[in-house]
């Protein structure tokens, strides 16, 4: 559906996107992840033919961004970050304007607007000027704008930024619903969001792709190491440490916090065998009051931090 | 083409959603009305020449005020990103915005036709120069709109757009008067570059293809410049 090849974009001398390349299949929900300034928005802007790349190419179906920008724009619905809509226009007028540009037949316009208003929950703000809308409503109007022409591809730049938790859930629901029929590309720096909505994740850092795959794949690639958190009501960490180091799978023990007789520590473990019964056995035999005990699976957050850390 | 029509409609309506249109039209009518009728009875002639002779100067600062927001505001609010990622070409956007500005100028000038009607009660009006004057006003308005649109595409600050546009229009209007110290041969060349010279020709009721060509070329050059600026921005 979409093929990005060797995409590079320089702003003056600074390189925003550095030889990025990947493909997006039809019907996929792709999450572009990365810290601020990683090149997510730039990539999306080039894809939507708003910016021209310094070099490289993007093809959407059979069209490429140099020769057929208008054809590509017809296929893509785009919601830029913070939805910069015309502040003076009424929501209804704005959507009519968009419908006109999307070449929707006059007789079908009202029906389409009503449909989208229901879907995005903007019925009650239809006759208010955009400048009076709250951020959440603005974002929803932006979403209605993006979906107006019933495009095959939706490009959403941080669709949930600045929304309250309820609105975030709502917008995610909408995206998931749309994603069943359409190809969706969304950028975010909220990892749980990518995990919750996306089929596939591409992590970008400093303009380069550092990881590409489904969340499960990413977790698997990141290795089988894991960490166990233990919190005991027992004073001296040095006394305790030795007991746990005796377990062969435990490769390290580090003190996290020691306060008022409570000792928090992490045990780094490797291998496939579950060491938790062995640890519990030690605690039970010594009769240490156990306050907390859990195994931390490597979350996307850890992977993300590892991949995008400076240096 | 439908893209251009849609943008035209949106921009033209946009003028009347905000109070800008009403303020600009009021200022224009008060100014022209005052300048025209304050001297009208001194001349004792039933024509509108003094009205038209003032028009290039008044247009020079009114029209940049009309056009200053066309691109600057879009750059400033970021709405340009939405506009440009919809299936329209740059040409559609520029055509739509330009024609909307020209249409607005036409609406602004239209009420002054009452002056003509009022004068016709007092004396015999020669309608030829009046018709020519209005035609010239539209051509001049189009040329200045193109200049204003160009100025607006250069910056995201509306005030800078206004001042740039106004300066360009003023220079074009007054170029032959500013260069009075040049020898006559050189002055004639600059006269041909001036908007005022061509406008006064038309408003005398003489419709010369050279004058029309002049205004159309100004429009073309400025709109082409705008499209280059827009391409450069993306």
Give a brief outline of the structure.
The complex is a heterodimer of chains A (311) and B (234). With 311 residues, chain A is of the alpha/beta class. Chain A has 2 domains: 2-221, P-loop containing nucleotide triphosphate hydrolases (Rossmann fold, 3-Layer(aba) Sandwich), CATH 3.40.50; 226-308, Alpha-Beta Plaits.
Topology:
The complex is a heterodimer of chains A (311) and B (234).
Chain A: E1 2-11, E2 14-24, E3 29-33, H1 40-47, E4 55-60, E5 63-64, H2 69-75, E6 76-79, H3 91-101, H4 106-120, H5 135-147, E7 153-157, H6 165-179, E8 183-188, H7 191-197, E9 200-205, E10 208-213, H8 215-221, E11 226-232, H9 237-245, E12 250-259, E13 262-269, H10 276-286, E14 290-296, H11 300-308
Parallel strand pairs in A: 3-8, 3-9, 6-7, 7-8
Antiparallel strand pairs in A: 1-2, 1-4, 4-5, 9-10, 11-13, 11-14, 12-13
Helix pairs in contact in A: 3-4, 4-5
Chain B: H1 2-17, H2 20-43, H3 49-67, H4 69-77, H5 79-84, H6 90-109, H7 113-122, H8 127-154, H9 158-178, H10 184-193, H11 195-203, H12 209-233
Helix pairs in contact in B: 1-6, 2-3, 3-8, 3-9, 3-11, 4-8, 6-8, 6-12, 8-9, 8-11, 8-12, 11-12
């Amino acid at each position: 559906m979409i093929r990005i090849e060797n995409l590079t974009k320089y702003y003056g001398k600074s390189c925003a996107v550095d030889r990025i390349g990947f493909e997006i299949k039809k019907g996929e929900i792709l999450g572009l992840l990365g810290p601020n300034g990683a090149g997510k928005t730039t990539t999306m802007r080039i894809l939507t033919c708003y910016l021209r790349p310094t070099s490289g190419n993007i093809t959407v179906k059979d069209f490429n961004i140099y020769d057929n920008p208008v054809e590509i724009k017809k296929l893509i619905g785009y919601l830029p970050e913070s939805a910069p809509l015309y502040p003076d226009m009424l929501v209804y007028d704005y959507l009519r304007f968009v419908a006109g540009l999307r070449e929707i037949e006059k007789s079908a316009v009202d029906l389409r607007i009503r449909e989208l208003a229901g879907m995005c929950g903007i019925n009650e703000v239809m006759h208010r000027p955009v400048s009076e809308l709250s951020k959440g409503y603005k974002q929803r109007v932006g979403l209605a704008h993006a979906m107006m022409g019933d495009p095959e591809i939706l490009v959403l730049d941080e669709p949930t930024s600045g929304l309250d938790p309820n609105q975030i859930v709502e917008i995610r629901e909408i995206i998931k619903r749309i994603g069943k029929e359409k190809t969706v590309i969304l950028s975010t720096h909220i990892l749980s969001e990518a995990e919750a909505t996306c089929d596939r994740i591409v992590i970008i850092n400093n303009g380069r792709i550092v990881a590409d795959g489904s969340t499960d794949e990413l977790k698997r690639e990141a290795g089988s190491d894991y960490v166990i958190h233990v919190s005991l009501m027992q004073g001296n960490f040095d006394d305790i440490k030795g007991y746990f180091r005796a377990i062969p799978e435990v490769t390290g023990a580090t003190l996290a916090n020691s306060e008022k007789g409570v000792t928090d520590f992490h045990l780094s473990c490797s291998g496939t065998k579950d060491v938790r019964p062995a640890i519990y056995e030690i605690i039970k035999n010594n009769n240490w009051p156990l306050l907390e005990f859990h195994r931390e699976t490597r979350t996307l957050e850890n992977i993300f931090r590892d991949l995008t850390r400076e240096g | 083409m439908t893209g251009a029509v849609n943008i035209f409609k949106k921009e033209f309506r946009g003028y009347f959603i905000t109070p800008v249109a009403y303020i600009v039209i009021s200022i224009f009518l008060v100014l022209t009305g005052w300048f025209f009728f304050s001297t009208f009875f001194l001349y004792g002639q039933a024509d509108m020449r003094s009205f038209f002779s003032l028009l290039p100067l008044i247009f020079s600062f009114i029209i940049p005020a009309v056009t200053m927001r066309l691109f600057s505001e879009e750059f400033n609010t970021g709405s340009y990103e939405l506009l440009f990622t919809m299936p329209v070409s740059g040409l559609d956007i520029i055509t739509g915005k330009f024609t909307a500005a020209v249409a607005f100028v036409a609406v602004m000038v239209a009420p002054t036709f009452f002056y003509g009607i009022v004068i016709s009660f007092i004396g015999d009006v020669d309608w030829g120069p009046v018709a020519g004057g209005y035609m010239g006003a539209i051509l001049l308005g189009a040329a200045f709109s193109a200049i204003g649109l160009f100025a607006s595409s250069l910056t995201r600050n509306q005030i800078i757009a206004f001042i740039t546009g106004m300066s360009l229009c003023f220079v074009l209007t007054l170029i032959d008067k500013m260069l009075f110290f040049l020898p006559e041969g050189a002055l004639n060349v600059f006269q041909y570059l001036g908007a005022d010279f061509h406008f006064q020709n038309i408003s005398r009721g003489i419709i010369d293809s050279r004058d029309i060509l002049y205004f159309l070329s100004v429009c073309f050059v400025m709109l082409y410049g705008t499209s280059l600026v827009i391409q450069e921005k993306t």
